């Protein structure tokens, strides 16, 4: 049998960070990240505008919007400002994953996130909080593009979409918890304390990113990843002429400045090449286009939902009501979507079928919900609609991960995340604010917004008929693990895995 390189987690004693524990850690980080999104959208933190009556008497307003005297457009910009950091940092983190330990990258990003959230709490005007929200996007960029590939690598073969569903379940449940958390903190303390509390929760995970010794990610070699930001040992090896692979690195040794320039050029060349592959893949593009339309609605729902509910149905406790409905429907719907796709047999074609059908019927229920004048009728139909639309989270990310080679999955996830934000929820929040300022009718605004779900369903419907290839087990030039190796190891077991047993499984 041919010699196969063994990932660190498979030889002798595996890392304490087993797949199950890794999944839990990623879920908690993702949850905190989206608690922040929900908190800033809550009435307790976001607050309300200053209102001036015809007689000249003005109310002071409340929360961020009242303290900084923001109109609805500026308020929407605050919710979308994180996209600047996400857009700039995502491709950088995804590219660096080839050379730097991914968990060190996550540690750096989460540290920036923690500092930025503290900054939100001490902000003093529109621009100061907008800049801090931009830096929050840097933290998300380091995490979101690397977590999903790790989960997909080490999940059991017949439960991959379910595991992804568990991870992405933290998005709606995190936003919902954020509504409740922000509402309570903003009511009984100050909106600033909500941000400081989030920073305390995230700090241990930022530190953890620097000390974790993680499992190997499929499609990447261990070379050069042992140190946080490069390897002085590798540089020394090059000088001494120690061979790496099929050739000696001493043959290519160059002075430091020239070598750094060559490394940057090589990194840029690789990035452009990988981007060309992604943009040339029709399946990937159609999947992301549908995801953009879907996220346009979800993003606006998450930000404006409590305020729309308060104005349409006069819900004094809109944060808690929307939070409660979203957390239940988000958890059940997201998990159900993952399990259903696994039961259908997880393929790219089946994923598109589930995406299109669930979104179409979810759109119908959500649209009809906003037509009800009764609060109870609205809640019943909206809950069913949310159950259906949240069933897409596992399948849509399954397509992103399996339609590309393992070596470009971080970039695939990064560009998917950037795209759904820059074309989806980033413009949707301020645009909905503009529409509402023009119509001054939250019911009509909500119906217009909800109709975009039908566009997402139509785009994903096209994906059913595209020729698709699952590339999860496709070898790349950087892969050190045999094709399908991560699927054949019983990674759920926490006992010692001997090298001979690993090789036998291969």
TrEMBL record:
What SUPFAM superfamilies does the record point to? MFS general substrate transporter (SSF103473)
Q: Which residues cross the membrane?
A: 77-98, 105-127, 163-181, 193-212, 283-304, 320-344, 351-370, 376-401, 447-466
What membrane topology does the annotation report for this chain?
Multi-pass membrane protein
Under InterPro entries, the record lists:
MFS, MFS_dom, MFS_spinster-like, MFS_trans_sf
Q: Which residues form a coiled coil?
A: none
Instruction: Give the range the annotation lists for the signal sequence.
Output: none
Keyword hit for Lipoprotein? no
- What are the GO cellular component annotations? membrane
| Molecular function (Gene Ontology), one example | transmembrane transporter activity
Q: What's the name of the protein?
A: Sphingolipid transporter spinster-like
């Amino acid at each position: 049998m041919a010699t196969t390189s063994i990932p660190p987690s498979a030889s002798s004693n595996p890392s304490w960070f087993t797949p199950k524990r890794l999944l839990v850690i990623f879920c908690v980080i993702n949850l905190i990240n989206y608690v922040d999104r929900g908190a800033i959208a809550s009435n307790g933190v976001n607050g309300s505008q200053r209102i001036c009556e015809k007689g000249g008497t003005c109310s002071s307003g409340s929360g961020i919007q009242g303290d900084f005297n923001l109109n609805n457009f500026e308020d929407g910009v605050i919710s979308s400002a994180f996209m600047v950091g996400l857009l700039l940092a995502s491709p950088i983190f995804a590219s660096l994953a080839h050379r730097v330990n991914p968990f060190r990258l996550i540690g750096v990003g989460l540290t920036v996130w923690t500092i930025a959230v503290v900054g939100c709490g001490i902000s003093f005007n529109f621009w100061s909080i907008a800049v801090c929200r931009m830096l929050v996007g840097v933290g998300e960029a380091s995490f979101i593009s690397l977590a999903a590939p790790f989960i997909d690598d080490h999940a059991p073969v017949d439960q991959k979409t379910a595991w992804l569903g568990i991870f992405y379940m933290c998005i709606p449940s995190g936003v919902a918890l954020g509504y409740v958390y922000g509402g309570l903190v903003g009511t009984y303390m100050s909106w600033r304390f909500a941000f400081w509390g989030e920073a305390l929760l995230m700090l241990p995970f930022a530190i953890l990113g620097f000390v974790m010794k993680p499992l190997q990610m499929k499609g990447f070699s261990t070379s050069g990843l042992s140190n946080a930001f490069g390897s002085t040992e590798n540089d020394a090896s090059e000088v001494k002429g120690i061979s790496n692979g099929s050739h000696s690195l001493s043959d290519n040794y160059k002075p430091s400045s020239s070598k750094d320039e060559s490394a940057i050029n090589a990194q840029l060349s690789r990035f452009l090449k990988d981007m060309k592959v992604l943009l040339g893949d029709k399946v990937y593009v159609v999947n992301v286009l549908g995801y953009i339309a879907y996220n346009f609605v979800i993003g606006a729902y998450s930000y404006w939902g409590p305020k729309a509910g308060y104005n349409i149905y006069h819900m004094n406790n809109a944060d808690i009501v929307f939070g409660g409905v979203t957390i239940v429907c988000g958890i059940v719907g997201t998990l159900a979507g993952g399990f259903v796709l696994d039961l259908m047999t997880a393929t790219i074609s089946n994923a598109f079928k589930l995406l299109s059908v669930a979104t179409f019927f979810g759109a119908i229920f959500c649209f009809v919900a906003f037509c009800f004048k009764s609060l109870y009728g609205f809640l019943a139909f909206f809950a069913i609609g949310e159950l259906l639309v949240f069933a897409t989270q596992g399948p849509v990310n399954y397509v992103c991960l399996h339609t590309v080679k393992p070596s470009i999955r971080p970039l695939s996830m990064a560009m998917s995340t950037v795209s759904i934000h820059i074309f989806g929820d980033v413009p949707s929040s301020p645009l909905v604010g503009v529409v509402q300022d023009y119509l001054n009718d939250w019911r009509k605004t909500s119906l217009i917004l909800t109709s975009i779900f039908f566009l997402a369903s139509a785009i994903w419907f096209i994906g059913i008929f595209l020729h698709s290839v699952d590339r999860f087990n496709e070898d790349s030039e950087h892969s050190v693990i045999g094709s399908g190796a991560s699927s054949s190891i019983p990674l759920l077991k926490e006992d010692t895995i001997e090298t001979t047993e690993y090789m036998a499984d291969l």
